[in-house]
Amino acid sequence: MTLEADISCLGRLPLFKSLPPPRLKLVALMGEKLRFEAGAQIAAEGEKPEGIYVVLQGEVEIANERSDGQGPRFQLNSGSLIGDVPLLSGQSYVGSITAKSAVSALLLPKDLFFELLETIPDFSLALTRDLASRLYRLADFTLHAEKVH
Questions:
Q1: 32, 113 in Cβ contact below 8 A?
Q2: Which in 69, 83, 109, 121 has the greatest CB count within 10 A?
Q3: What digits encode the pLDDT tens for the residues 113-130?
Q4: What's the CATH code, domain 3-111?
Q5: pTM for this one?
């Protein structure tokens, strides 16, 4: 992807829609563009995040595998954030994160992420809504033992 494509992709995500164009360009420039092949590990369980990943293209899986290779798994698609929850809570990843397909991601350093939260109220509100939506889906899944939607 080119810089313009990265900016366009970020601008379509609810979390980044409120950013003014110069700030959106800064995010795209300051983020580290990463590519992962299917099966590649993005982050290890127990690791502390150094920033947040914005999945621009592809699918990732968060898994907590037991010794028998089984265990809970959660799939995330393009537009998903990875690492925001452990970063905000000061915790480590609760599972390993693996690319399920070829993945293009932007790694935003934690300093940039916190600067966006502190200086752009609309960004903070968008992240709060995103976190609340994910919490609601998790509670719904837990209480109703149905597929997370």
A1: no
A2: 83
A3: 999 899 888 888 889 988
A4: 2.60.120.10
A5: 0.85
Token readout for 143 is 């209480």
Ordered by start, the domain boundaries in the chain are 3-111
3-state secondary structure of 80: coil
Q: Determine whether 67 is exposed, middle or buried from the number of CB atoms within 10 Å of its CB (0-12, 13-18, 19+).
A: exposed
Closest CA to 93 of 78, 108, 81: 81
What is the spatial distance between Cα 108 and Cα 31, in angstroms, rounded to a whole number?
5
Which single residue is written with the structure tokens 């393009």?
A: 78
Query: Helices (H) and strands (E) in the chain — how many of each?
Result: 5, 8
The CA-atom distances, in angstroms, between 121 and each of 18, 108, 124 are 9, 18, 5
